[in-house]
Predict the structure.
Amino acid sequence: MTLVAAERPTPLRLVDQFQLGLDAPICLTWELTYACNLACVHCLSSSGRRDPNELSTAECKRLIDEFERMQIFYVNIGGGEPTIRNDFWELVDYATAHHVGIKFSTNGSRITPEVAERLASSDYVDVQISLDGASPEVNDAVRGVGSFDTAVRAMERMAAAGFVGFKLSVVVTRQNVSQLDAFQALADRYRAQLRLTRLRPSGRGADVWDELHPTAEQQRTLYEWLLGHGEQVLTGDSFFHLAGYGESLPGLNLCGAGRVVCLVDPVGDVYACPFAIHDEFLAGNVRSPGGFDRVWKSSVLFGELRRPDTGGACASCGSYDACRGGCMAAKFFTGLPLDGPDPECVLGHGEGRLAAVGDTLLPQPSPDHSRRARGSVAPVAVVLLPRRPDRACDEHPLADFGAGHRPH
Amino acid sequence: MPPTVPVGTTAFDPSLPWALHPQVSLRPESFGALAYHFGTRRLSFLKSPTLLAVVSSLATQPTGRDACTAAGVAADELPSYERALATLAESGMICERSAS
């Protein structure tokens, strides 16, 4: 992004303006479904099973209408695996016809050659293929057996269809941080752009954060690598806690939660950010009167998040202006106070505090849609019924067919 | 098919007629506006309401400089506004139009 300033200084720096919130989010993530054919160990939305209460096609379209009215230029669609929804393409077409651009994240399992062709011919749709290792061993340990091959096959199809500049999206972990150059080479091979984001202890990520998050030394390597690659590598502004090393990375360098960022989940709940799926950060629901617009503009939670930061325990630190205390979700799910240092504070201020938290009870992510058989990350075939299940407990194969189709 | 590099990049000449690129949308905000280019997927921030007024009126003013003066930009501020427009031209947010 570009800052275009006319010389006369504005009364507030842009970053301070953003802290006070905008009329509409800049970066809105919309998770379309909790259903997923994978069971990644670090899934930030604890996805797996579809929620019976997920927004219907008509409700999704009404929400897109609202996005258009609010001039939300584009939304990041995720899940779960969003392409699993039967109305996925219908919604993509509806959004682009209503001037709402779409960037969707996928594990690639449904990117057929035909789908790739279709995507390549659209101006308003961008695609992000997730991969968390540059080799099958590293990736599949996190995302499940076969998921590396699936993602690479999807990238091959995108490249063959002539889609230049789709995104290869990687969550940086202790196991893959040594593969940054290999990821870049993969992206180059398929004419994709590399996107690196931070592992958060959110959703199922809370269970594996201790083993997966980069070490202090690795963070330094990552920082140098990001500095060296500049704006060529996208980061979703997710490494601003590394600004404590000195020079800032490209981006806004602030926690945008509830200010310029928010999440709409599959059942219409609006959270402050995609990494904060917890009652504590729930601002409202798009089904309530006034819809998304009212939640964004008037919710009590977002009002609180838009108050100027005081810095809390970090206020006296010389780096506070650079890192702004780091990531709210990372603090919350590791049991740290929100007005103190990030657990991965590059000056080491988080480590002692983490040790002090020890084994006390950590906040659990509120909605958990993980499939019940945990412990295996093998992908499963998910076949969705044409309709949502009527109730969460409707697991009978005929439960979805209503009264008219009851077996005699 | 989304291009990954900015398209239509041109050097900015304030004596020529300009317009917002047809694929760009503006969203006014208290600090100025957000500008989003659907073709390049680039987001820019116009950091003052006056700059927003300048950019919005480009298409109806004979030249880029006229758009500045019509929006109330004083003579001593012109260079900085022209630099801001040059930045927008570089990223394809605004483009030359044929004189009418």
